[in-house]
Amino acid sequence: MNKLRLGVIGLGNMGSEHCRLILSNRAKDMQLCCVADLREERRAWARATLPENVQVYESGHALIEAGACDAVIIAVPHYIHPDLTIHALRHGLHVLCEKPVAVYTQQVKPVLEAARESGKTFALMFNQRTNCVYRKMKQILDSGELGPMKRMSWTITDWYRSQLYYDSGSWRATWAGEGGGVLLNQCPHQLDLLQWLCGMPVRISAFAQEGKWHDIEVEDDVTAYLEFEGGATGVFIASTGDLPGTNRLEIACDQGKLVCENGKLLMWKLPMPESSGYRQGADAYPHPDIQPIEVETDGENPQHIGVTNAFVSHILHGTPLVAEGEEGVNALMISNAMHLSAWLERPVSLPIDEDLFARLLMARRLTSRKKDTQDITFSTDHSATGKAL
Ligand SMILES: NC(=O)c1ccc[n+]([C@@H]2O[C@H](COP(=O)([O-])OP(=O)(O)OC[C@H]3O[C@@H](n4cnc5c(N)ncnc54)[C@H](O)[C@@H]3O)[C@@H](O)[C@H]2O)c1
Q1: What's the number of domains the chain is made of?
Q2: 195 and 85: one domain?
Q3: What CATH number is attached to the domain comprising 340?
Q4: Is residue 88 part of a domain?
Q5: Per the domain annotation, does 388 fall within a domain?
Q6: I need a surface site. Which of 58, 172, 202, 230 has the fewest CB within 10 A?
Q7: How does pLDDT run along the chain (389 residues), one tens digit per residue?
Q8: Do 52 and 139 belong together in one domain?
Q9: Which domain range does residue 164 map to?
């Protein structure tokens, strides 16, 4: 097989961007051969914009059943991810699914079962993992050169969204259509990176304010306190209401710290570990004279097309994926835990009580606000920054 034949399901903001990237000269060994959307307006866009030989289908199911491709990228609203993923895997297709893998963790088990049974590749679009600064952070933390983590804090408030954004989709920012707000739409990337870099927390206490900055029913402002095995703690702050916002990740370890902000990674490294050096030392107020160094990276940040290229290469040549499908449950578990803690107004242990979460979410879905909105697709090229659309 020279080129992998790809289908894109969902031609909204993200799906149409995937098409553009697959057709660009940054894509390797792949061919866009079919697309699908439920909306006639998006199918008309596809017929007018994409090459003539790209088949256009009226639904994800129709595209999958047509057998016209080897693999699909799924870019539809969150609740539908598991159903389409399972359908595609059972029809012998490889799947690259957009984040989040699902809306609640209970939905993930059958997806992973279908992936195992099919023997096909199941991967997730965690494009922020391709960013050189996060890859470098992982390399440093995994090497152990800074010792065990003591504390992490991430302020991720540069996901600003206006009311127009929320009003642009009938599914957006509703419990029934989307299943959550900033935690489920924007932050799956950071929650995935959090568990990738720091490991899974074991307990979470969270506050999630719903409709604080926008006329929406889901959360747009979150503050969470995380506890990790071994005693490390963390703070995670997310909002779509701050302008200008902040994206600052700090990870403090026994022998130094890393700070990632404004696309730069700074490292402070102590000459010896704090626990075995300074804590028992003769100096009551040690102030080691260390300056931060800006850590060099390879400068590569290929984002979405990087994930898609890795997916294709994995299928054709057996090279590693950026994110395996089964890893998706971790970010979702953290996100569900934050919601659950906020709803119950108490700390929750991980893994959470998945039945309870599903019941409480269902209660919200049943009373969810109906949105009588015209769906709008924004055609903005964010590929240079990797910012979600
Ligand atoms: N990785 C990223 O950076 C990133 C950025 C934006 C969105 N996303 C993800 O992409 C997904 C879609 O988000 P969006 O902003 O593009 O939404 P959108 O509303 O703009 O587009 C979704 C499209 O899916 C279509 N659709 C729904 N069900 C379908 C079905 N069964 N078959 C075919 N088409 C169907 C809709 O008609 C719509 O056109 C979400 O999971 C979102 O989280 C990821």
Answers
A1: 2
A2: no
A3: 3.30.360.10
A4: yes
A5: no
A6: 230
A7: 689 999 999 999 999 999 999 999 999 999 999 999 999 999 999 999 999 999 999 999 999 999 999 999 999 999 999 999 999 999 999 999 999 999 999 999 999 999 999 999 999 999 999 999 999 999 999 999 999 999 999 999 999 999 999 999 889 999 999 999 999 999 999 999 999 999 999 999 999 999 999 999 999 999 999 999 999 999 999 999 999 999 999 999 999 999 999 999 999 999 999 999 999 999 999 999 999 999 999 999 999 999 999 999 999 999 999 999 999 999 999 999 999 999 999 999 999 999 999 999 999 999 998 777 777 787 544 443 444 44
A8: no
A9: 129-300+331-366
Q: Which protein residue's CA is at the shortest distance from atom 15 of ligand 1? A: 13
> Would you call the peptide bond into 273 cis, given omega within 30 degrees of 0 as the criterion?
no
Same domain, 94 and 138: no
Q: Within this chain, do residues 212 and 69 fall inside the same structural domain, yes or no?
A: no
Please tell me the distance between residue 101's alpha carbon and the centre of ligand 1 in angstroms. Answer: 13
In a domain, 307, yes or no: yes
Return d(Cα 244, Cα 239) in angstroms, integer: 11
| For the CA of 304, the nearest atom of ligand 1 | 1
| % helix, strand, coil for the chain, step of 5 | 35, 25, 40
11 lines ligand 1 (CB under 6 A): yes
Dihedral (CA of 171, 177, 183, 188) sign:
negative
Residues 267 and 233 in one domain: yes
Cβ atoms of 293 and 311 within 8 Å: the answer is no
For a mutational test of ligand 1's pocket, the pick from 9, 76, 240, i.e. the residue with the most ligand atoms closer than 8 A to its C-beta, is: 76
> Both tokens of residue 144?
């152990």
| Residue 77 near ligand 1, beta carbon < 6 Å | yes
pTM, rounded to two decimals? 0.96
Does some domain include residue 241? yes
* C-alpha gyration radius of the chain: 22
